[in-house]
Amino acid sequence: MRTTILLTMLILIVSPAFAQKYISWEAEDFNDSNGTKFEIFEVPSDQPGNAGEGVDDYTVAEASGGAFIGSANGTGNDGGDWVKYEFSVDADDWHFWGRVIAPSVADNSAYWAFDAADGDVASTNNATMNIWDFFEAGELRVNYTTDWVWFRLNTRDGPFEGTELIQHGDDPVPVELDAGEHTLHIAHREDGTYIDQIFATTDVEFDPNETDPQTAVEPQNKLTTTWGALKGEF
Ligand SMILES: [Ca+2]
Ligand SMILES: [Ca+2]
Ligand SMILES: [Ca+2]
Ligand SMILES: [Ca+2]
């Protein structure tokens, strides 16, 4: 009887871990790149601020995997440089997030595209490419910080009909992906913008600013831990 109760509790505890799906990778672990504007920085990393925007020079003390990508202020905007990630998912609606440092309105965006041909990737907003803004809307600019923040993937005008993405709305629009292999290109837009990690989940409610995705992407470890603890009870 006690075993049945414990097993029922166990199922209730671990079920959400199996119902949810997650993927994540380090921004510095790109599969391919073009150009030289995206650098890999290892922490601690001193970065120039943006005097025109009131951002003092600062040090990035921490990053997942010990490194992140971006371009220091002074590198110049746009340029067509890009990094590419190859990944594989189940068919589903995926909510993408990025762990980003965006300290001012002049250091807070990148371009992106899913499943684009390398030759179509450019530093421009067109039918293929999108702008990913970080605290761009006027009312959000009070949030500028040199600390890492998780941002939902968003776009100013969308590449896919019907999938306008909302940055901070109550009803965020996911990216609908078929089963199998996909690519994500991130192309250079504003210097002084840094990316540490990319994370995606099918759970619309999941907020990586509240729960470290590292705990979510390793449900196997959590299950092992739970079983180990329960064995002690028996
Ligand atoms: Ca901007
Ligand atoms: Ca800049
Ligand atoms: Ca576009
Ligand atoms: Ca990283």
Task: Briefly characterize the structure.
16% of the residues lie in helices and 33% in strands.
What does this structure look like?
Strands 1, 3, 6, 8, 11, 12 and 14 form a seven-stranded antiparallel β-sheet that branches. A five-stranded antiparallel β-sheet has the order 2-7-13-9-10, with no helix packed on it. With 234 residues, it is an alpha+beta fold. It has a single domain, classed as Galactose-binding domain-like (Jelly Rolls, Sandwich). Helix content is 16%, strand content 33%. It is globular and about 45 Å long. It is built from three helices and 14 strands. The chain has helices spanning 2-19, 213-216, 219-233; strands at residues 22-26, 32-34, 39-42, 45-47, 58-60, 67-70, 82-89, 92-102, 109-114, 130-133, 145-152, 175-177, 180-187, 194-201. The N and C termini lie close together (12 Å). It binds calcium ion (4 copies). One calcium ion (CA) is lined by residues 105-106, 108-109, 136, 190. One calcium ion is lined by residues 125-126, 129-130, 157, 159.
